[in-house]
Amino acid sequence: MRTLVISDLHLGSRLGRDVLRRPDVLDGLLGALEGVDRLVLLGDTVELAEGRPRRALAIAEPVLRAIGARLGAQRDVVVVPGNHDLALIRPWLRAHGGPQTVDARLPADAGPTLARVTGWLAPARVTVRYPGLWLADGVWATHGHYLDRHLLPDSAYGVTRGPLARRPVDRVTPRAYEHTRRRPSLTRAEARLAGVLPTPLARMAADALELARAASMPQMARRRTARRWSRLTVRLLGVQMQRASIPAIAHVAQRLGIDADHVIFGHVHRLGPLPGDLPERWTGPDGRPRIHNTGSWVYEDILLHHAGPAHPYWPGGAVVVDGDGPPRAVALLDHLPSL
Ligand SMILES: [Mn+2]
Prior knowledge:
Layout: E1 2-6, H1 23-32, E2 38-41, H2 53-71, E3 76-79, H3 90-96, E4 103-106, H4 112-120, E5 125-136, E6 139-142, H5 175-178, H6 186-196, H7 199-215, H8 231-236, H9 245-255, E7 262-265, E8 290-293, H10 301-304, E9 317-322, E10 328-331
Parallel strand pairs: 1-2, 2-3, 3-5, 6-7, 7-8
Antiparallel strand pairs: 1-9, 4-5, 5-6, 9-10
The structure holds manganese (II) ion (MN).
Manganese (II) ion is lined by residues 43-44, 82-84, 143, 145, 267.
């Protein structure tokens, strides 16, 4: 059983950084489905947080139809919403008060927009899971936006009062991470900026948020790629948020009571671990679980800054889960020298 996990397609994003709308990039993904039994879309598949869902869905439709057609009726695709496409399952979340388990299975028509998206993926066999799913024994995958709750001061989320305020050893259900109404949310701030600012300012805001996300992930060993990063990027990386995302996602898994050897997430758009990454930085406390990131399918100017592949922020990342071996990060678009 071979599973290919991709995330953060952000199809239909206002700034057009979603590379899968390009035919040559889509061909690269379709080619990579050869020999794959199951495709997991691990969140932020469609950009529904920027306040222009009709346009985003119109751009997503042909891409998702092509993926469904290539998979065919004998293969599976799993849709796991993230923070930018949470609108797909909002009717279900409201009706159920949030997921009660870490791998809830939702009906493919749990909301009108979800029904359209899952319909486009036909004839592939579509299932919808949230907030994550077990891909194999000891391998759990989730989009990863729950980690945002551990990046900001707890008081910003009212965490000092709710169930997340209890001692770190206490277990919580995913519902504890869903209840953010009337509280600050990175996603909401991001969406508002992207939706209302004039394009040049929206671009700056998107860049700043990409930098913030990047700053929360480890850098590669300097010799391999760091010198290719812009000086500004390097300076902004590595201060307050550096290396915060991996401990935060490990913390999420611990709070949810997930006993995994491997946790796969997306959300921060940083493919890894790659050769040149320090393995000890890609784990939870005491070396378990090992953490893997799926990268993204968006082109982020400020992070790439004239760099080409191979680069941890080059679009086209994926994680392969295959048999009994550990999950491994793969780059599917390194054959495209420019995007
Ligand atoms: Mn996300």
